Amino acid sequence: MSTPLVGIIMGSDSDLPVMQAAAAILEQFNIPFELTVVSAHRTPLRMVQYAQQARSRGLKVIIAGAGGAAHLPGMVASLTSLPVIGVPVKSSNSIDGWDSVLSILQMPNGIPVATVALNAAKNAGILAASILSAYDENIAQVLDAYKQQLQEEVLHKAEKLKTDWQNDFDA
Ligand code: RP5
Q1: What's the pTM value of the predicted model, to 2 decimals?
Q2: Could you tell me if 6 and 61 are in contact, meaning their C-beta atoms sit under 8 angstroms apart?
Q3: 3-state DSSP helix/strand/coil % of the chain, to nearest 5
Q4: Residue 150: band (very low, low, confident or very high) from pLDDT cuts 50, 70, 90
Q5: Which residue has a Cα nearest atom 6 of ligand 1?
Q6: Pocket of ligand 1, beta carbon within 6 A
Q7: Has residue 171 got a pLDDT over 80?
Q8: Which atom of ligand 1 is closest in space to residue 66's alpha carbon?
Q9: Which atom, in ligand 1's list, is nearest to the CA of 11?
């Protein structure tokens, strides 16, 4: 196993059904990652240790997911200079998801967290890959191919609609 470049952490194992999408896309991109539970409230010292050791352990990006009073991404960002991507999770203790979004999004100046949409762990994985691609040509090529594939899928759908609805629009 190569050294993980991305650390995926979450406040609880109940976040895993959402957070596993980040792991899946990193696996698809062949980017080594690690995945564990780190709770800002239930294991604060583990959180401090994780964040403080992340860079020396070789991590380049941290993806942190949490829900409700979602303090994990912001607190981790306060403890490391690595980029932190926050995933707001609509969890069991979340009122409607806005609590998770705002807890992660509304950071004070000086301590940014790159916040993705509610439950958007897949995008967090893609954003982590984009950050790594700034200095890794192989990852850049994988991402370019992925975007090309997305484009082809949309064009294929447009072509299908054109046939199904006898619509002539062609950009
Ligand atoms: C947060 O509380 C976790 O990130 C999770 O989203 C939520 C609920 O945790 P459990 O009570 O399910 O462990 O800290």
Answers
A1: 0.95
A2: yes
A3: 50, 15, 35
A4: very high
A5: 67
A6: 10-12, 14-15, 39, 66-68, 89, 91-93
A7: no
A8: 4
A9: 4
